[in-house]
UniProtKB/TrEMBL annotation:
Keywords: Cell membrane, Lipoprotein, Membrane, Palmitate, Signal. It comes from Streptococcus ratti. InterPro entries: Bact_solute-bd_prot1 (IPR050490), SBP (IPR006059). Coiled coil: none annotated. Pfam families: SBP_bac_8. This is Sugar ABC transporter substrate-binding protein. The lineage of its organism: Bacteria, Bacillati, Bacillota, Bacilli, Lactobacillales. Signal peptide: none annotated.
Amino acid sequence: MRKELVGLAAVSALVLGLLVGCSRGAKNQKTDSDPNTIKIWVQFSDETAEGKAWKEIVSGFNKEHRGEYKAVTEYIPRSGSGGGYEDKVNAAITADNLPDVITLDGPNTAAYAHAKVIIPLDKYVKDANMDDVLDSIKQQGTYKGKLYAFGYSESSVGVYYNKKMFKEAGIDLSKLPTIDKPWTWSEFNSISKKLKKHFKRPAIDFKLNSIDEMMPYAYMPLIWSNGGTVVNSEGTKAEGYFNSKKTVEAVEFIQNLVKKGYTTISPVEKGFETGVYPMLLSGSWTINDMAANYKNVDYGILPYPVSDKTKKLVSPTGSWQIAVTSKSDKPKIAAEFVKYATNTKSSKIISLANSVLPIRKSTIEDVKDEVPKEMAFLMEQNQKSGHARPVVVAYPQVSRAFQQAMQDISYYKENPDVKKALDIKAKEMQQAIDDALD
């Protein structure tokens, strides 16, 4: 998931512009000479763990439907800046030659749906046991009440902690927070104060130097925990929401971490992994990194801290999805593949092979004893408290304004007033939303 976060806003802005400008009024056209073959584009290489798992899923689909229809995949890896795959999709939108099925990142659902690049899936997934699918997956793929995209993997974030450093600071490991009873913001601040005092350095790398999609992805849950939000439920209003009292209080919690020296805006690279900081805010991707490169670090993962007012645990979710394009002349076959690639069996294949979180409750039950305990923890947190990023047509601009707001408030001496900073960015978000919906 981490690599997908990098460069999302910049790439998505290009996507949004091309979608709105080029997709309307286009006619359906065949994507393959064989009427029983569907073509799929994916954003990874066939040599990666994800690619090898995908091959297994496609092979299983083709075997099950041998003699009826067939799926073929074109692998189009993304570049480090997020280009490559999106560039080809954008060009295909312009040239009107999209395949039957494409992959897309969760926050891009609204833009693709609004521009009629992808079609609703509701009538095709009635027999897909949707009650088994995590709410976060349905949330990120839904636009205006209709399901347009189906996530095939999930992700999450937690508070990593160094057990040895906690013990050294006098923190009782038997009394750490749980998913059912997480730390409140006040309790988190108290622990951070104790760690800072003992080690004479910041207690946590809160990723304030992540000038990318990590900020909205990881920080929005703090806002939701306090009853605030970034945009309204329809994704049409930011003013009055991103700058509301509840949102301001949550962002003040983040700013206070910097003011008190509990975190830093310029952390040491790999500071948690090398024992500089006792805590780290990071996602499921860090588990593999720890296992591969920092085996000597005895660590665990804690749930998100929660608002003192609501005590409600909310954690981030979201990853890549599959959708049927409006250019497919075989939508029923394409939708059959979407269902197959997101069933319990396929979800297990992709989760175990690529070390990502499952999208189904049944898959979580199947794999929870086969994965590291830290991954199992994030699966449970995801299942109980996962919340997808907002489905809004102008998400790229909303994301960028959010990132800039977090940067502004972290430089608290120059920008001490959180409300003022959010007022400015809420206005920018609103303008972008209005322009996109115009």
